[in-house]
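Researcher: If convenient, please comment on what follows.
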Amino acid sequence: MSAGTLKTILVTGGARGIGRACALALGGPGRAVYLTHATPGSPGAEETLERLRETGTAHCEAQCWRAEDSAEAARRIDGIVKAQGRLDVLVNNAGSVRDGISLRMSDEDFMRILQADLFSVFCVSRAAARHMLKARSGRIVSISSVVAFTGNPGQANYSAAKAGVAGLTRTLALEYASRGVTVNAVAPGFIDTEMTRANIPAKAAEALAARIPLARMGSPEDVAAAVSFLASDAAAYVTGQTIHVNGGLYM
């Protein structure tokens, strides 16, 4: 297909976990999928690209840049639109954790997570919106978290950032609605990803699963299914919402 005919998707933090699942769910014939990662030479990014090619995705590309770098985000998104002629869907998934009890948390650790998990969403959404608003069409979906609504000991920075994502989503939805651009969020519960396994010991994970009404941790694909809906034409009348995907942990 020629430039301008491929439905174009950008997934930040798409090398693994929820980001990878979203990229795969949104890929396929007639699609151009771009994913970002923060680690040069990321083997996860290459694996995601291989799996996208297996789905028949017409164009897929991994780019190494940090979503919280405002100037770089704008430059990269301008480049994507120049190459494809459009940007239809943005999934804001990039983020990080630096857990610790609030009394012992450094200013640096608090601000670093606000930058990585909240400011990044603002930077990339703003850069994407400049093109979507001109096209009078677009979908922005950001990943929040159940802890934005429940809180979680040891995650003052992360829960604050993810609560900010939910609030930012509502404001951007109001600002962009008149131009046909929808802005929504998905708030995952405890999802079985590499990051979760690295930060939650096995016994603690079992205890968490026991608290979930559906009696299991979620999968990245569970989250990607909600993201896919919000990115689809079926969700054209849904904006400013946060969909909870948590197995009933928070209602």
Remarks:
- The chain has a mean pLDDT of 95.
